[in-house]
Design brief:
The complex is a heterodimer. In chain A, α4 crosses α5. By secondary structure, chain A is an alpha/beta fold. Chain A folds into three domains: 5-240, Rossmann fold; 243-331 and 417-430 and 443-501, Rossmann fold (3-Layer(aba) Sandwich); 339-415, no CATH class. The relative contact order of chain A is 0.12. A six-stranded mixed beta sheet of chain A has the order 6-7-8-3-9-10, with helices on both faces. Helices cover 33% and strands 26% of the residues of chain A. The longest helix of chain A is centred in the middle third of the chain and has 16 residues, at 176-191. Chain B is mainly α. Chain B has a domain at 61-256. Chain B has helices spanning 2-44, 51-76, 84-102, 105-128, 134-152, 167-170, 178-196, 198-208, 210-215, 220-246, 258-268, 280-299, 304-324; strands at residues 157-159, 172-173, 176-177, 248-250. In chain B, the strands form two sheets. In chain B, strands 1-4 form a two-stranded antiparallel sheet. The longest helix of chain B has 43 residues, at 2-44. Chain B contains 13 helices and four strands. Classes of the chains: A alpha/beta, B mainly alpha. The interface between A and B is medium-sized, with 37 and 32 residues. The complex binds adenosine-5'-triphosphate and magnesium ion. The site of adenosine-5'-triphosphate has 21 residues of chain A, from α1 and α14.
Chain lengths: 501, 325
């Protein structure tokens, strides 16, 4: 396939506050191809795309579209060149309705300046239908599941007739079938000559949908090529310098005593009749599609949501948790999903984000000791391979995956007996993912009880002893980790099969 | 090979200097602005550098300065406190009453602290538990506190009848009047509180991302109530100084527009209106900048009617500069 290069970035240099982030990166995208942009967390993928999207200026280099040099100085200019951008972090406005978000900044108006609401709603419906999403365009975005927010973000980019769509980790909150639909759509776009840059840490997706790839490491171009010629292992090696095994990581060991018992937990509209138990040393996985209620369930358990009925026992003690503080006191920790919304304190430094929930560990006679915090951070930095030049900068300056690692470090430091991870590897590269799985497994081996919420069946299969599948707020199936396949999980998650109770 | 390496290492070096400078500017723009204004003032008016004039400026800003410290904490938490001027008057009036009734300065001080922090506590409860926007809640408090003060003092002033009370604001240690010292000490204490303790850390977290703060197991409501109570306590210290200075307080004209001056100082000091970002040191210099401006305008005989215009201009310029970052 030799198509004309539609877009070229030549010898791009970029540094932030004196730290060089991109070094002479050259990147071509042909017309009508899906191009994977790969690399470890902090390799510079988002930065390169932010330059192309007019978010950041570059220091040196040039950008060409259709052979002509262009100056993209702001996001609007990028749009005028036919570039749409789906950002890594969600940018929807919670207090606006779905259609208002979709048309934000490009509202359809009558001659007199009034909004054409019906037309916008109808167009919203059309696009969402292509992605197989059924939501009311007039719904407020704040009431929606994350996966819907992500789908809205995607639809928004599809709204404009773009020639190049940048997708920076668009599927981190999506379930398998939603990803499938997205891929269908991407292939249609490709047929009609649209180019797509696709950033993801999920190699399976990349293999499935991408034509060519470019790999960055530490801000340098380390390889590119056509997807067909290479196998995934080669690419993995290019990215992280080693190959990654796909095997299950846990051995069955004997569990300790029961630490958590949940009986008939219900919350109208979110989940109903949830009962399960968890033992010391056990890793339980909860999976399902968007809207299955698992996030709400565990937010309730953690005391963030208060309107539920049923009972919760921790160490055989009936307990009423109505504040996250109480949950932590009772030995329950929660690494929430959607870090931008639920976990990142963007004005605090990387170190202070890490220590926020366990500040007592760093206090002496009531005063926080910078030195202790710093030492502790150093420990996690090495352990989780957090890439940060100066940990005193605010956390929003870190790459997405590295932010996520800091959030995981934060809860590892709290060190509760039961720890709930909601979509813990969101945006984390394959090498670091493996490291985090090992961390989780070793937590269990130390006798902690772990709960993992994930829409990625392979992830659940890899590290869970016990798997619960949820559908529309109910647990529809329960398996031992080693005796189930992805397909079987899917059939329960989509509601096409139900376990007789 | 060695050659390319050399080039690579030089490149970041060069941008480091540029990076450093922009970092310096973004971190310390208020201090740089202060230095510029200070130099400009000393060029414009020879009397400005006079030791007496310098001390005079510090004395003039001490009351607003203490109020602004509390305002900084409130604004860092993502709120605002419009009631500071009125609460200051209410505290002043009640304190003088307690002073005259008991004859004890200590009881008067205690009364001041209690009234001030209680008013702040009420603000905090309205904001945290009642989920009322801080602008509205403290606007209500502003009207209510002023009204009670007017009622108690029957619209006029009341004066202290206990000798010794005036010593608080009028005595000095070496060349420093007590209010200056109190302002400096409060600045240091609040600095330590905000940057070295968990309370401060939690305030920043709440102002930056309240939902994430809650999910980080921070007791958001309690911290907010603490923030407003503390602001009230600082107002009561300011009230004591204000009352002690003239040994009286006017229920109708004292404390008027203090909230605006305090907010102005906080904004000039670089604290973000929406919370989560800002520094105590910034506010300290913001207060000094306002003080120098007032002083200069007096020294240069600018009409008092125009002084508000100049101040307004400076505030807007300060905000424009912040936006650029
Ligand atoms: N605004 C910024 N200020 C300072 N440093 C930044 C800024 N944005 C990014 N960086 C740094 O640039 C490097 C590359 O970040 P980038 O976000 O491009 O990584 P990425 O490849 O997208 O990683 P991920 O897979 O985690 O999303 C990181 O080391 C990050 O800390
Ligand atoms: Mg990224």
């Amino acid at each position: 396939m030799t198509k004309s290069p539609f877009m070229t970035m030549n010898n791009i240099d970029k540094s932030f506050n004196g730290v060089s982030v991109l070094k002479k990166v050259t990147f071509h995208v042909a017309q009508g191809e899906i191009h994977a942009l790969l690399g470890e967390n902090g390799a510079g993928k988002s930065t390169l795309m932010n330059i192309l999207g007019g978010v950041h200026p570059f220091d040196n280099g040039s950008i060409q579209i259709n052979g002509e040099e262009v100056k993209i100085t702001n996001p609007r200019a990028a749009q005028e060149y036919g570039i749409s951008f789906i950002h890594q972090e969600l940018n929807v406005v919670s207090d606006l309705r779905v259609y208002e978000n979709m048309f934000l900044g490009s509202e359809i108006r009558t001659r007199y300046g009034f909004l054409k609401v019906d037309e916008m709603c109808q167009k919203t419906n059309e696009i969402l239908a292509k992605l197989g999403v059924d939501i009311d365009p007039k719904e407020y975005v704040r009431n929606l599941e994350t996966s819907y927010k992500q789908l809205i973000e995607i639809s928004k980019a599809l709204l404009h007739k773009s020639k190049l769509i940048i997708m920076d980790e668009p599927t981190t909150s999506l379930a398998e079938h939603e990803v499938k639909r997205l891929f269908g759509l991407m292939n249609n776009l490709k047929q009609s000559g649209v180019s797509i840059i696709y950033i993801s840490h999920k190699l399976k997706e990349i293999k499935e949908v991408c034509d060519r790839y470019t790999v960055l490491r530490d801000g340098e171009l380390v390889g590119n090529g056509s997807m067909e010629e290479e196998n995934l292992d080669t690419i993995t090696k290019l990215m992280v310098g080693k190959s990654i095994s796909q095997e299950r990581l846990i051995q069955d060991h004997t569990f300790g005593s029961e630490v958590l018992e949940v009986n008939n937990l219900s919350s109208p509209g979110c989940f109903s009749n949830i009962s399960f138990t968890l033992k010391k040393g056990e890793i339980a996985g909860f999976t399902g599609l968007a809207g299955d209620g698992r996030t709400e369930l565990f937010e309730s358990l953690f005391g963030y949501r208060k309107t539920y009925t049923g009972e919760i026992k921790i160490n055989n003690q009936l307990i009423k948790i109505d504040h996250p503080r109480k949950a932590v006191k009772a030995g329950l920790g929660l690494v929430p999903k959607d870090r931008k919304e639920n976990a990142i304190i963007k004005d605090l430094s990387v170190i202070h984000n890490m220590s926020l929930s366990s500040i007592g560990h760093f206090e002496r006679v009531g005063f926080i000791q910078d030195k202790l915090e710093k030492e502790r951070f150093q420990y996690y930095k090495e352990k989780l391979n957090i890439k940060v030049h100066n940990p005193r900068i605010t956390i929003d300056k870190l790459s997405g995956g590295n932010q996520q690692k800091v959030i995981i470090a934060k809860w590892l430091e709290v060190d509760t007996d039961i720890i709930i991870f909601d979509n813990p590897t969101q945006g984390i590269d394959i090498g670091a993912k493996q490291e985090i799985y090992h961390q989780i497994v070793s937590l269990a081996e130390q006798g902690k009880a772990v709960i993992i919420l994930s829409s990625e069946a392979p992830e659940i299969l890899k590290i869970c002893h016990q798997i619960y599948v949820m559908f529309q707020g109910e647990i529809t199936a329960r398996f031992k980790g080693e005796e189930v396949t992805e397909d079987e999980i899917m059939s329960y998650a989509t509601g096409s099969k139900r376990e007789a109770k | 090979m060695a050659n390319t390496k050399m080039v690579k290492e030089q490149k970041p070096q060069m941008s480091t200097i540029k990076g450093r400078l922009s970092w310096l500017w973004s971190e310390y723009s208020v201090i740089i602005a202060f230095i510029i204004i200070f130099i400009a003032a000393s060029v414009l008016s020879p009397r400005f550098l006079d030791m007496n004039n310098q001390l005079n400026i510090l004395m003039q800003v001490s009351i607003i300065g203490i109020v602004a410290l509390g305002m900084t904490i409130v604004m860092l938490s993502g709120g605002i406190d419009l009631s500071v001027g009125s609460v200051l008057v209410l505290v002043g009036v009640v304190t003088v009453l307690a002073l005259n009734a008991t004859g004890s300065i200590w009881i008067a001080l205690l009364t001041a602290f209690i009234v001030g922090s209680f008013a702040g506590f009420l603000n905090g409860v309205m904001v945290a538990k009642g989920r009322i926007a801080s602008f509205i809640a403290t606007l209500g408090m502003m009207a209510a506190a002023r009204s009670i003060a007017l009622y108690i003092a029957e619209g006029g002033s009341i004066s202290g009848e206990v000798s010794g009370f005036t010593a608080i604001a009028n005595n000095n240690l070496w060349i420093f009047d007590y209010p200056i010292l109190i302002f400096l000490i409060m600045t240091i204490l609040v600095y330590i509180l905000m940057h070295k303790t968990r309370f401060g850390r939690h305030v920043y977290a709440i102002g930056s991302n309240e939902k994430a703060a809650l999910l980080s197991a921070i007791r958001v409501d309690r911290i907010k109530i603490g923030v407003y109570s503390l602001a009230g306590l600082l107002v009561s210290i300011a009230a004591i100084i204000e009352t002690s200075r003239l040994n009286s307080i006017s229920s109708s004209s004292s404390g008027v527009q203090y909230e605006l001056d305090a907010i102005a100082a906080v904004i000039i000091g670089g604290t973000r209106m929406t919370g989560g970002r800002g520094k105590i040191i910034g506010t300290f210099f913001g207060v000094l900048i306002l003080g120098i401006l007032n002083n200069m305008m007096n020294l240069m005989n600018v009409s008092p009617h125009l002084q508000g215009f100049v101040k307004g201009l400076i505030i807007i310029i300060a905000v424009v500069f912040q936006k650029r970052e």
